Amino acid sequence: MPSFTTSPLQEGLPFGIRIGGLTLDALQDKALRDEIDALFVQHGMIVFEDVEQTDAMQLAISSCFGPLKEHPVKGVSRVDSNRLPGVIEIRSRRGMGVVEVDGRTVSHWLPWHFDHCYNDELNRAGVLRSVERVEEGGITGFLDGVALYAAFPEALRRRIEDAEIAYRLETQYDDLRFGRPRHYRMVEAKPMPAGFADQVAAMPRAIHPAVWTRPTGEKVLHVSAYMAQGIVGDETPHGDTLLEEVCQEINRLGASCSYQHKWRPSDMAIWDNLRMLHCVSGNSPEEERLMYRTTIAGDYGLGRWETEPTAAVGADAMA
C-alpha cells in the first residue's frame, strides 16, 4: 500500500500537486522523503491534506526539503525556539496594519512577492501551517514563475529579460511603489518591533535578476512588487514605467493563472520561493489570523548586495 496519494492541485494549472494520507511514521523513511522532494522540484508547490497539525509534523514535512534557515530579520516574531526552532509566527492582529484595496478594507494584505527579496540570499521554500483561521478572506495565492514567463507578452518579456531589480526592506503599505491596485490607500500603519528601523537603516539594498534559468532549463520570471525600488541602472521615469508595467501584468495574470488557497485546519503547504510568487488576500480587521512558517535553506546564488553591509548587519541582523 502506498504511503501517500497524489492528485492535481487544481484542474488546468501547470504547477502544483496535492499529497494526502501522509503520516509522521511514514516520514521517517528517507526514500519517501526524497520522493516527496522530487515531486516538489517538478511541481513547484505541494498542499499536504489531512495531515496531523503538530509541531513534530511540520518539522518532519520540512525535513523533506532541506535544513531550516533562520529568518534574516531579528524583529520578526518567533515561535518558542525550544519547542519549534527556526519557525516564525505570522499574526494578523485586530485593527493593526489596515489597507483599502479595490473597495475592501482588510488587514494583513500582501501583494505578489517572493520572500527575502531584500536580502542577498533567498530561501528555497516555506512551509505554512494555519493555526488560527478567519471566516472570510485570509487566502494565500500562488503564482508560478515558469508559467508566468511563458504567459508574459513577448515584447514586455524581452524588455525585462536581462534586467536586475533593486529591493529594500520596506514593509509599510505606503512604501509600495510598483504594482499598486487601482484603488488603494493605507488606513492604518503596521506596528513595527523595537529596533526595526535601525536594522533597516543599516541594510544596503539587495539586487536580484528579473528572470533566471533553473538547473532544469526553464526560465522563471521572478519580480516582487513588494519592496521593489527600481531597475538597476535605470531608476528613471522610463525605467520606473517599465517596472510598473511588469508588476501590473503580473497582477493581471495572477487574477487568472494563480492558485488561491483557502486554509483548512488539516492543511500544510510548501512553495518553491525561487520559482513561485505568493500573495495574501487580507481579512477583516476585526478578525485575527495566525500562521506558523518554517523556512527552508537553499539559495540560487544570483542575488547580491548593492554595497557591502555593515559589520553589525552582517554578523547579527542577517544571521
Automatic annotation (TrEMBL):
Q: Which Pfam families match?
A: TauD
High-level lineage: Bacteria, Pseudomonadati, Pseudomonadota, Alphaproteobacteria, Sphingomonadales
Which residue positions does the secretion signal occupy? none
Q: Which residues form the TauD/TfdA-like domain?
A: 8-295
Q: Which GO terms describe its molecular function?
A: 2-oxoglutarate-dependent dioxygenase activity; metal ion binding
Coiled coil stretches, renumbered: none
Which superkingdom is the protein from?
Bacteria
Q: Which UniProt keywords apply?
A: Dioxygenase, Iron, Metal-binding, Oxidoreductase
Which protein family is named in the record?
Belongs to the TfdA dioxygenase family.
Check the record and name the InterPro entries matching this protein: AtsK-like, TauD-like_sf, TauD/TfdA-like
What name is this protein filed under? TauD/TfdA-like domain-containing protein
How is this protein annotated for GO cellular component?
A: cytoplasm
